[in-house]
Amino acid sequence: MTAVPVRARVVFRAVLAVGPVCAVAGCAGEPEPEATSASWREPDSYTYTLRSSEGERSLIGAFRITVRDGAVVKAVGLDDSGRRVVDDVPDTVPTIGELLGEWRQARRDDADKAEVEYARDGHPERISLDWMENAIDDEALYVISDFEPADG
Predict the structure, then answer these.
(1) Interstrand relation of 61-68 and 46-53 (parallel, antiparallel or unpaired)
(2) In CA terms, which of 1, 34, 35, 140 is 20 to 30 Å from 26?
(3) Chain center to CA of 144
C-alpha cells in the first residue's frame, strides 16, 4: 500500500469539498448547465422581479411577478414598458420555469448563445439567449432578482 502524504490528503479533501460549490456558483469555468438547473426545483409559489431586455419581442420591461400553484397570478409593470406589457399582453409574463423552458428550447435548437447564471441557492439569476449571432433583434436577456419563495 502506498502512503499518501498528509498535505496531499488535505488538498484532495479541499478539492472534494470546494468542487461542488464551484460547480453551482460557477467558480472555475462554466458549470454543466443541465446539472446546475436540475439541482434547483421551482417552488409552486414565489415572487420575483424580472428585467427583460434586448431583441424585438413583446416581453420587454421590468416586472414584479407573483406565482401561485405554478402560474402567474399577478404581474406589476415597474416601468413604462412593463406596464404596457401587463396591460396589453399579460399572458406573456412568465414563471421562472417558463424562462428556463425557453433556455432549454434554445439549447435544443442549437442557438448560438444559451446561457444561465445561478444564484447561491440555485435559482437562475440571468438567462441570456441569442439564436443567431449575426441576426438582428433575436436576442433575449432575462435578469431575475428579489426571488422569494412563498412561506409554507
Answers:
(1) antiparallel
(2) 140
(3) 7
pLDDT of residue 133: 85
| Number of residues that this document lists for the chain | 152
Strands 139-149 and 46-53 turn out to be antiparallel
Q: pTM here?
A: 0.73
Report how far residue 50's alpha carbon sits from residue 61's, in angstroms, rounded to the nearest whole number: 8
pLDDT confidence of 119, banded at 50, 70, 90?
very high
CB of 110 within 8 A of CB of 91?
A: no
Residue 109 has pLDDT above 50, yes or no: yes
Q: What pairs with residue 64 in β-bridges? A: 49, 76
SS3 category, 130: strand
Query: What is the amino acid identity at position 82?
Result: G
Instruction: Kindly give the residue spans of alpha helices, DSSP state H, lying in the chain.
Output: 6-25, 33-39, 80-88, 96-108
* Distance separating alpha carbons of residues 46 and 56, to the nearest angstrom: 28
